[in-house]
Amino acid sequence: MIETLTIITLFLLYIFYFRPGKTPPLNNPLVIERPGKYHALLAPNLNLAQPLVEAIAQRLLESSGDVGNSTTQFFEVQDTHVTAHGHAAYLLAITKRNGMLYFQATAPAVNSDHLQTISEFSSKVLEKFPPAAEPDDTVNQEIVSATQQVARTRGVEIVRIQ
Questions:
Q1: Could you give phi then psi for residue 155, rounded to 5 degrees?
Q2: Dihedral angle at the C-alpha atoms of 91, 97, 102, 107, nearest 10 degrees?
Q3: Is residue 12 part of a domain?
């Protein structure tokens, strides 16, 4: 009888101590680097946007390869996985320079223009990566198209900001 109670108690302590719990959102920015493919910077608490960003990157890498440059394309994203952690929407910037994709995501600033917020955030990151050639409008269209296709397949609402 005592052995059974001891085993049950140890079992319960083990379960309570090692049980899986929810992973809290990260309070640090998430930097994802895939050398030769893409670079992503997700602002604090936007780590759950990673699967969408990686799916967009994969689609763009499959469709366009290593050629072309683009201007920065800006989007407002409403993703139920991310909104569950305190954001109604987040802002996403996508740029292709010298064959590399660059993603930046940030939360919208309170009482601020979304385009200005994401544009400033993106330009700070992209200062380190100057383009070697002029932007190509077909690359811009590929970015917008791939982003919208991935969003549809994942049930995410994306609106282009201009």
A1: 70, 30
A2: -20
A3: no
Asked if residue 13 is part of any domain, the answer here is no
- Kindly report, residue by residue over 119-148, the tens digit of the pLDDT: 888 888 888 888 878 888 888 899 999 999
pLDDT tens-digit profile of 34-60? 888 899 998 888 888 889 999 999 999
Q: Does residue 16 form part of some domain?
A: no
Q: How far is CA 133 from the centre of its chain?
A: 26
Question: Residue 125, Cβ neighbours under 10 Å: how many?
Answer: 18
Say how many domains are in the chain.
1
Q: Is residue 115 part of a domain?
A: yes
- Look at strands 157-161 and 100-106 and give their pairing: unpaired
pTM of the model: 0.79
